[in-house]
Amino acid sequence: MSDIVVKFPVPVIVVAVSDNGVIGDGEKMPWHLPGDLKRVKKITMGKPLVMGRKTFQSIGKPLPGRTNIVVTRDRGFKAEGIEVVHDIGEALDLARRVALRDGVDEIVVFGGAEIYRQAMDKVQRMHLTEIHLDVEGKTRFPDYDPAEWVETARTDISEEDDSPAHSFVTLERA
C-alpha cells in the first residue's frame, strides 16, 4: 500500500484590491507595492496562470516560470510564450492538465475582473492583497458573499516607502 497522496489542483484567485473594490484603471495597477509583487511571485511560481487578454497585455509579456493561459474571444489573438483559449472552462481544463503534469496543487486565476467573475464559483481559496486606499478606476473585483469564506491568514503592513498600508489575506471557501 502506498502513502502517496495525489492532490487534485484547485483554482485559486490572486488579486490586489483597494478598499473600494478597484483592481485597476483599465491599463495598469493604480499602486506600486514591491512586497506584493514578491508575494505574488512566491504564490504563483511554477503554477499555471489563467488570465484575460487585457490583463496579459497590461503585463506585456508572459510571466516566466509559469504556464500563461490567456482567455480571449478574439480567435486571431496570438502571442509568443502563452497558451490561448476561448472560454474559462477551456482555460481551467488546460490549467488542471498543466498543474497535474507539473505536480502543483493550485491553478492561479490572475485576472481581470471578468475572469475573476467567471471563476468565482469554482475557486477554493483567495490570496488577497487589500490595499487600504480608495482609488479611482473602472475595473473592479466582483462582489462575493463573505459568509462563504473563512479568513485563514492575515498580515497587516503599515504605510512605508511610498507604499500605502495594505494587508495580505488568505480566504478559504467555507
Automatic annotation (TrEMBL):
Q: Which InterPro entries match?
A: DHFR, DHFR-like_dom_sf, DHFR_CS, DHFR_dom
Q: Which GO terms describe its biological process?
A: dihydrofolate metabolic process; folic acid metabolic process; one-carbon metabolic process; tetrahydrofolate biosynthetic process
Among its keywords, does the record have Oxidoreductase? yes
Q: What highest taxon heads this organism's lineage?
A: Bacteria
Pathways per UniProt: Cofactor biosynthesis; tetrahydrofolate biosynthesis; 5,6,7,8-tetrahydrofolate from 7,8-dihydrofolate: step 1/1
- By its UniProt entry, which PROSITE patterns does this protein fall under? DHFR_1, DHFR_2
Keywords assigned: NADP, One-carbon metabolism, Oxidoreductase
Xref: Gene3D superfamilies: Dihydrofolate Reductase, subunit A
Q: What is its EC number?
A: 1.5.1.3
Stored Pfam families = DHFR_1
Cite the DHFR domain residue spans from the record. 10-173
Q: Does the keyword NADP apply?
A: yes
Question: Annotated Gene Ontology MF terms?
Answer: dihydrofolate reductase activity; NADP+ binding
Q: Which SUPFAM superfamilies match?
A: Dihydrofolate reductase-like (SSF53597)
GO CC terms in record: cytosol
Catalytic activity reads: (6S)-5,6,7,8-tetrahydrofolate + NADP(+) = 7,8-dihydrofolate + NADPH + H(+)
Give the family this protein belongs to, as stated in its UniProt record: Belongs to the dihydrofolate reductase family.
Q: What does this protein do?
A: Key enzyme in folate metabolism. Catalyzes an essential reaction for de novo glycine and purine synthesis, and for DNA precursor synthesis.
**In its UniProt entry, what is this protein called?**
Dihydrofolate reductase
